[in-house]
Every structure is written in C-alpha cells, then in structure tokens.
C-alpha cells in the first residue's frame, strides 16, 4: 500500500503534475463552488453587460474603465494601467509560491458602430464578442472575488491582466510582458474553449500584396493589364497551391493561407490602378511556415508577371521571434501544462475523455511561449462562431469556467 503510494507519487513528480485532488474537497473550496452557483445570475448578468460595451482593438477605452473599476470592486490591489491600455491588478499571496499571471483580452474584432445586444435563446447567449473574449474576463473577476470572500489564500501572487490589441497581433500581451522587469513564473491566457489546454504557439504572419497597373478608361481597357485580374489570379492560384503537410498530431486545419481583405480601384468605368489583398499565413512549425510564406510570395509574383503588373509586398504583422521558446518536450512536461490537464480532467470538463494538450494556440500565451516563459492557453466558456456577427456561447458554461479558474489558481499558485 505504502509502496504503491510512493510509486504513484514519484510518477506524479516525474510528470510534473502538481494537482492534489484534495484541494477540491477542502471546505472553503466547496463553499466557493457553491457560491458560483448561488451568484449564477449575477455572473451571467455581468457577462451580458460587459459584452454590450464596444471595444474594437485600439478603441478599448470604455472596457478599460469598466475593468479597472471591476478589479477594484473584487478587491484586487495595486491596479495599474500602461501606456497602451492593458490594466492589471494583484491578488496578493502569502508567500512561497510562484507568481501566476492570467490574461484575457478586452478588444474585439467588431467596429464601434456594430449593434451589440445580447439575445438569449435555448440556453445560449448570442452577440458579437460574447465568447471571444468577454466571458473569460467575467469568469476571472468572479473567481478572484469568490476566493477572497471564502478566505482562500494563495501562496504565490496572482496577477489578472486584461489586455488590449490581442486581435491585431497579441500586441497588448507583448507590450505587457516586455515591459515587466520580472517576468511572471507562469502565464495563462484564457481565450479558447473551456476544457482545452494549449501549450504551443501558432506561427502567424500577415502580408499585404498590392498589384499595380495602368489606369485606363473602360473603352481603352480591352486586352490590357488589369490589377484586379492580377489579384484574382493570385487568389485562385493560392487555392490550388500545394500546402506543406500538417505536423504529426497537429491540427488538420494547418498550415493555412487565407485571403482576408481585398480592395482597390476608384471608379467603376476605368481599370484599377492598384488592387490589394491580404494573406493570413499560419502553421505549427517554423519550417512549414517559412516554406509557406515563400510559396505565397512566389504565387503573388507569378500572378503579377502573368498580368504584367507591378507588385508590392508588405509585412503587416510578422511572426514573433520564437528562438527563445522552450523545446516542445519541455513545454509539454512542465507542471503548468500537467496541472491544467489534471484539473481539467478532475472537473470532467471534457466528460470522461482524457484531455490531450495541443502544441498550438493563437492567443496571448503565444507571446509567453516565444519569450520562454511557461505559458498555456485555456478557456472559461464554450462558445461558437467567434469573429462573426452570429457569435454565441453556452450560458451555463461560464459557471463551470469560473470554478475551473478557482481550482486552477489554487493548484498553480498553491494554497495555505
Ligand atoms: Zn480571443
């Protein structure tokens, strides 16, 4: 009996697994879980309220004010705001534990004048940004509020940072982490599906291709170069391009190159002097990414040559430097990942299915991974249709998400 216990404990240590299920059985934690259910309506009401506050990237002012006040309301201390708008507060620990940072982003992809009114239907909320990433902000607020209320004291300090400009290249998290003299010991971005654990970084590069040709009256345009046709050729060729193979065990949706925006021309009765399109290129490994970027560029160049056009290629959001990232095996076996998996499975967030961590992610934690900080991407709600006007989320998921935030915080930062 003792022997098997010792064997089990050493196996746990080998895995770097730190979660002791007894934490979940402590009376304070049980009370904290009950409190989530008791204030379910309040949590969901705040979720709706915050969702209806518009916050396009770089125009997060209203949500910044809301989050600052909310952080003060739930008792976080040392609340600060930096030059680009990130706001954060601290739940002070008793000492002896790691410094743990949670990030959730305030910005959305929806312009200021988008009509945002949350509609409820059959247990789901419908509204732009309900899931990405408003639910996480609200779950974290209530998790820390309830922990404080129930006297659950962590050993390590817990920092909650509400970031800006996530949707335009993780710029807020990048600014925040780069400007912190002492980097957090553990960094957790809460921005994906509840139950998922990502420990890698998706490589993302975005380029703008501008085709330049003559501007001529429609009557003079027959058989002449046309910048619109150059762009069209490129889009069709991209569609037929051979893609690098997905990494073993990786997402079947990757690598990928998507044309997201296009435009050009000034009048309907002439050829457009210039037509642009943007390509979003994503992969799970550096080699595939480099090859894909080269291939996309040469497809663009070939289209321009065929159509006798000029071509300008500009990088809009170039890949972060991943040279400092820890090796995949080190990241996967880190106690941060193993603890998140253990808590996820303990709470059966994926039912009886054992959770598998994925070497991917395209959230704020990418920045942590790139900087060599132990980092993961997880979720606090179950949503769908992110980045579309039809976005929705399961109303009840935020309650499980709030509980998960509390148990994970206790497991990672340690409790007295
Ligand atoms: Zn997001």
What do these coordinates show?
This protein is of the alpha+beta class and 416 residues long. The protein folds into two domains: 13-201 and 322-413, Aminopeptidase, CATH 3.40.630; 203-317, Alpha-Beta Plaits (2-Layer Sandwich), CATH 3.30.70.360. The protein has 13 helices and 15 strands. The chain has helices at 2-15, 22-25, 27-38, 40-51, 61-73, 130-149, 171-179, 227-240, 286-306, 328-333, 335-346, 365-370, 397-413; strands at 77-81, 87-91, 100-105, 119-121, 124-126, 158-163, 186-193, 203-212, 256-264, 274-283, 310-317, 349-352, 375-381, 383-384, 392-394. It has a six-stranded mixed sheet with strand order 1-2-6-3-7-13, sandwiched between helices. Strand 4 and strand 5 (124-126) form a beta hairpin. Helix 4 crosses helix 6 (130-149), helix 6 packs across helix 13 and helix 8 packs antiparallel against helix 9. The protein is elongated, with a radius of gyration of 24 Å. Mean pLDDT is 93; it is low at 1-15. The site of zinc ion has 6 residues, from helix 6.
- Structural class comes to alpha+beta
Low-confidence stretches: 1-15
How would you state the average pLDDT, rounded? Answer: 93
The strand order across the widest sheet is 1-2-6-3-7-13
CATH superfamily of the largest domain: Zn peptidases
Distance N to C terminus: 28 Å
Order of helices and strands: HHHHHEEEEEHEHEEHEEHEHHEHEEEH
Shape assignment: elongated
Question: Treating each run of at least 4 consecutive H or I residues as one helix, how many helices?
Answer: 13
The kinds of small molecule bound in this structure are: zinc ion
CATH topology heading of the largest domain: Aminopeptidase
Helix content: 25-40%
Number of strands: 15
In total, the number of domains comes to 2
């Amino acid at each position: 009996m003792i022997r098997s216990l010792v064997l089990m404990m050493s196996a746990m240590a080998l895995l770097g697994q730190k979660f002791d299920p007894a934490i979940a059985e402590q009376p304070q934690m049980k009370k904290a879980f009950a409190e989530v259910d008791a204030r379910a309506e309040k949590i969901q009401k705040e979720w709706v309220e915050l969702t209806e506050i518009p916050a396009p990237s770089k125009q997060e002012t209203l949500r910044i004010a809301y989050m600052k006040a909310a952080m003060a309301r739930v008792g976080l201390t040392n609340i600060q705001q930096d030059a680009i708008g990130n706001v954060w507060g601290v739940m002070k620990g008793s000492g002896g534990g790691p410094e743990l940072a949670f990030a959730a982003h305030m910005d959305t992809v929806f312009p200021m004048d988008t009509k945002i009114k949350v509609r409820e239907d059959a247990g789901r909320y419908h509204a732009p940004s309900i899931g990405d990433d408003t639910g996480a902000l609200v779950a974290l607020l209530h998790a820390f509020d309830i922990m404080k209320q129930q006297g659950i004291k962590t050993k390590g300090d817990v920092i909650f940072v509400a970031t800006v400009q996530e949707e335009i290249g993780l710029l807020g998290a990048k600014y925040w982490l780069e400007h912190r003299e002492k980097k957090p010991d553990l960094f957790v971005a809460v921005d994906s599906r509840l139950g998922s654990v990502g420990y890698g970084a998706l490589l993302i590069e975005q380029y703008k291709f501008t085709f330049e040709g003559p501007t001529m009256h429609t009557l003079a345009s027959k058989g002449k170069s046309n910048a619109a046709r150059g762009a069209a050729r490129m889009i069709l060729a991209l569609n037929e391009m051979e893609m690098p193979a997905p990494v073993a065990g990786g997402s079947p949706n990757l690598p990928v190159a998507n044309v997201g925006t296009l435009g050009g021309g000034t009048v309907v009765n002439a050829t457009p002097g210039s037509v642009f399109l943007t390509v979003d290129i994503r992969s799970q490994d550096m080699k595939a990414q480099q090859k894909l970027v080269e291939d996309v560029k040469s497809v663009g160049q070939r289209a321009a040559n065929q159509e006798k056009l000029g071509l300008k290629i500009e990088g809009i959001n170039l890949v972060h430097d991943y040279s400092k990232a820890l090796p995949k095996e080190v990241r996967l076996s880190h106690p941060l990942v193993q603890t998140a998996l253990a808590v996820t499975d303990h709470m059966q967030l994926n039912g009886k299915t054992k959770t598998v961590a994925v070497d991917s992610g395209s959230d704020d934690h990418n920045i942590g991974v790139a900087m060599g900080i132990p980092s993961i991407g997880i979720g606090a709600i179950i949503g769908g249709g992110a980045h579309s006007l039809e976005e929705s989320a399961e109303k009840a998921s935020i309650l499980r998400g709030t509980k998960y935030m509390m148990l994970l915080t206790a497991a990672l930062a340690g409790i007295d």
